[in-house]
Amino acid sequence: MHTMWKGSISFGLVNIPIKLHAATEDKDVKLRTLHKKCHSPIKYEKVCPVCDEEVKNELVKAYEYAKGKFVVLDNEDLENLRKENEDKAVEIIDFVKMEEIDPIYFDRSYYMSPSESGGKAYSLLRKALEESQKVGLAKIVIRSKEQMAVIRVYENTLVMETIHYPDEVRSVADVPNIPSDDKVTKKELDTAILLIDQLTTEFEPEKYTDEYRTALLELIESKRTGNETITPTAKEVGTNVTDLMAALQASIDRTKPKKPTAPRKKATPKIKKEA
User: Fold this and answer.
1) Are 85 and 102 in contact (CB under 8 A)?
2) Would 249 be classed as within a structural domain?
3) 49-101, pLDDT tens digit by residue?
4) pLDDT confidence tier of residue 116, bands split at 50, 70 and 90
């Protein structure tokens, strides 16, 4: 499993060298955009609208503090800031009950594995979290972003769940058209609760599948096996053979030694005979 972060986590005087691995993966079917005319993949280029030219390496990071006004940030400054924070040990700052954290705060999940010398400390934290039925709250910098994280036990493995800061969760007061009063009758409520009871079951994630993705893959496979495939039109590359041959021939003709021209004979004037 690919290691995406190395560091250490500490609680109290206990330090655990760990590695992070992505716990989930995106299995969306990636579709390319083609030109309908020739079925060639579309290129997305970075073009400067003022210079009207494609830019590749001449790029800098900047923060737009007002419309059209920027503060440019040097790559060196950003790199130093990132290293300064990433090199720090991740410290568990609090322990809380898992049910106290609303799911809206959760972002991404990462498996944690111990480095070569961290097995015992890893086991200690895992056992302590299980026995106390608590989760740890910590801060970590991943991909140049400082994030809050929850450390918990999942199937005998420590998992780090990154969570949003409170100011990153939008206020429910901004959601439009939320009714303030429950204008439902008791009969309607009883019927709804009865329906919920009838559909209540134990959570078994294995029985849920992405039906759209499955159907899309089946459609793609049926078209592929049915020979409903296309190949992009090959781009015509000019060889300039004709122009090249003409240029070579002209060069040869130009360098050919010219044949000496024979001097023109002067015309001899005719002498009229006397009668």
Assistant:
1) no
2) no
3) 888 888 877 888 888 888 889 898 888 877 777 666 665 667 899 999 999 99
4) confident
Under the phi-then-psi rule, with left for phi > 0, alpha for psi from -120 to 50, and beta for the rest, what region is 133? left
Hey, what amino acid is at 226?
G
Question: Is residue 64 situated within a structural domain?
Answer: yes
Q: Tell me what percent of the chain is helix, strand and coil, each rounded to the nearest 5.
A: 30, 25, 40
Backbone angles phi, psi at 118, to 5 degrees: -110, 10
Segment 237-273, tens digit of pLDDT: 655 555 666 766 777 776 666 666 555 655 555 555 5
* Residue 114, domain CATH: 2.40.290.10
CA pair distance 192, 155, nearest whole angstrom? 35
> How many domains, in total, are found in the chain?
1
**Host domain of residue 87:** 5-26+59-168
SS3 at position 115 = coil
Residues 6+ apart with CB under 8 A from 125: 9, 11, 14, 16, 136, 151, 158
Is residue 114 situated within a structural domain? Answer: yes
Span between the terminal Cα atoms of the chain, in Å: 125
Judging by DSSP bridges, how do beta strands 90-96 and 5-11 pair with one another? parallel
* Helices and strands (DSSP H and E) totals, the chain: 5, 11
Residue 156 lies in a domain: yes
- C-alpha 235/C-alpha 202 separation (Å) is 57
